[in-house]
Structure formats: structure tokens, C-alpha cells
Amino acid sequence: METSNEEIRKIQFTGKSTYIISLPKKWVTSRGLKAGSQLVVSQQNGSLILSPKEMAKSSLTPAEATIIISNKENSDTVTREIVSLYLVGYNFINVRTKDERINALHRNAIKELTRKKLVGTEIISESPNEMKLQILISYPELSMESALRRMCLIATSMHEDDIQALRDLNKELAKEVIQLDDEVDRFSLYIIRQLKAAVQNEKILKDIGLSSARDCLGYRVIVKSVERIADHAVKIAENITLLKEKPSEKVFQKISEMGLFARKVFEDSIKSLFKKDYLLADHAVYKAKTIVTLENEVIKEIRKKIEQVDVSNIRMIMESMRRTAEYASDIAEIVLNLNVNQILTK
């Protein structure tokens, strides 16, 4: 059924190999087009988009956004606004005040955000009442797969360092793990920026290696799960800094075994993602369910071996390890959905 802004047009065949379709006269004249004008034809989510050549050119210019802030605003509010603009794809972000100077608190927060959280972003100009940010990196320079692999490697190393910090009660190493979380967040925001762009542009979708816009939702959940796995590495490190004494060798071995198990489930789920391996993902989901058995074994051991004052911290460490395996299982389930065609009968 046609609506007021829709028309049904028939495809015609002319010559030996050319298909043509007529354009609505009202649309042509409203855009100042005439016979001989050039159109850009682009594909997006299975549809063809027609754009006047000049309009298509202007859409390729870097998008610029300006926000007006007040010194009365909370610094977190300002940084959230910048992150939102970064995620939706702006390449230039201007931060201005109306009549006042940007205060030191806001200025430092913006610099810290740029340095720690926004991949490829630089402050290219600065004045008393304005800061201008430019996102310099382009998608081919850092692919989504490369960013996601880097993100996963950092999260894995954080969990490995947690075990070493627990074994030696190395609180300085635990603090280093906490600081690494910023690196994971940087790649997370960059990947989300890519996914948002890919949903709107089929060329970007293909460039980042996805077959449909629907896949973007799956990858968005995967990125969030990796983020959560890194967050639990931070929680483990924070609880290590609160311990009064090293756990006994037997307790440590049990906890170490549990941590290794959770890490292996995570590594298998990520391997299944990049290899598009349905069976490996299915095995990771099954394997994750058995971590509760390991957790119960540690609980039995700590009741006998550890000081009462540290029991709650050890229990929190184990909970984070279990949650790591559960988030890894969530990743594997997304891989199952993305590769379900592998089990269909041909």
C-alpha cells in the first residue's frame, strides 16, 4: 500500500543488459536537478539510496558538533556529552562556554577523557572559553577486529596478573590491574563508534567484516561482556588490596584453578568468535556451567584454612571469577546466534 511519500515504479529493461527506472518529477525538480545531472547510487541494508552528487559530497565531509557548557555543570555531565558525540560519529567536537572561561576542573576532565578513553582523539586548539577536539583515526587504520582482539588480550592479562598478585599478596600489581581498565574502556568506546556507523552505512558494515546490520547488535553485546569481564578483574584486584594476609597454599591453588578455568572459558568464547566456530562456542557455554563446582570446592577449603577477617574478600574474588565465566558464556551464546547457519541442513 502506497503512502503519501511513496510511489510504485516498474523496472524496465532496455537495450541488451540495462535495467532502468523513472524518477518522480516532483523529487527531481525540488532538488534542482535536470537531464544530465549526476546521482550517486549507494547500497544500504539491501536498499538503494539515490543522492544528488553535490549532496553526497557534502555528506562525506567530517561531521562537526558544538556543545555549550556552563561552569555550574558537573564535570561528569560534560564528559558524558563528549562521549555521546564521539559514539555517534562526529569527527570534530567543539566545547564552548557562553561568557565565562572554561574552569580548570572541566578543562582537566576533558583532557583526561581525551587521553584515557577516546581512541584517536586529540585536542587541536584551546582558548579560554573553547576546546576543539578532533578524531584523527579512521576505521581502516584500526579495524574493529584488531580493537576487539586488543581489548580481549588486555582483559585476559588483567585476570592473569590478579592471580599473581593474590599469590604474592602484591598490592602494587593489583593497583596496576585497576589502572588497565581505562585501556579496555578506550577500545570499547571505539568499537561502539564503529558499530553505530556500520548500522547506517553498508560500506562501513562490509569494511569492518560484518554481513548485516543485525550482526552489529550481537557485537555490541559481546563488547559489553568483555567490558564486564575487565570490570571483574578490577573487583578482584580491589579485594586483593583489602586482604590482611596471603591465603594458604592449598586455598590459593583452588582459587588459582578457578581463575584459570574462567579465563579458559573466556579465551574459548573469543576464539570461537573469530573462527566463527559454532561447536567451540557450544562447548564454552556447556563448560561455563561447571564453574560452580570449583567455587564450592574453594568455599569448603576456606572454611578451614583462612582467617575470618579475609573470608568476605576471598568470597568476593570467587564471585568475580564465576561472573567472568558467565559473561564468557554470554559471548559464546552470541557466537551461536551469529553462526547458527552451520547447523542447518543443506
Description:
The protein is of the alpha+beta class and 346 residues long. It folds into three domains: 12-59, Pemi-like Protein 1, Chain: D (Ribbon); 64-135, 2-Layer Sandwich (Translation Initiation Factor IF3); 140-343, Methane Monooxygenase Hydroxylase, Chain G, domain 1, CATH 1.20.58. 62% of the residues lie in helices and 12% in strands. The protein contains twelve helices and eight strands. It has helices spanning 25-30, 53-59, 75-87, 104-116, 144-168, 171-200, 202-207, 213-242, 249-275, 278-288, 291-305, 308-338, and strands at residues 12-14, 18-20, 39-44, 47-52, 64-69, 92-97, 121-127, 130-135. The strands form three sheets. It has a four-stranded mixed sheet with strand order 5-6-8-7, covered by helices on one side. A two-stranded antiparallel sheet has the order 1-2. Strand 1 (12-14) and strand 2 form a beta hairpin. The longest helix is centred in the C-terminal third of the chain and has 31 residues, at 308-338. The protein is flat, with a radius of gyration of 26 Å. The two termini are 36 Å apart. The model is unreliable at 57-61 (pLDDT under 50).
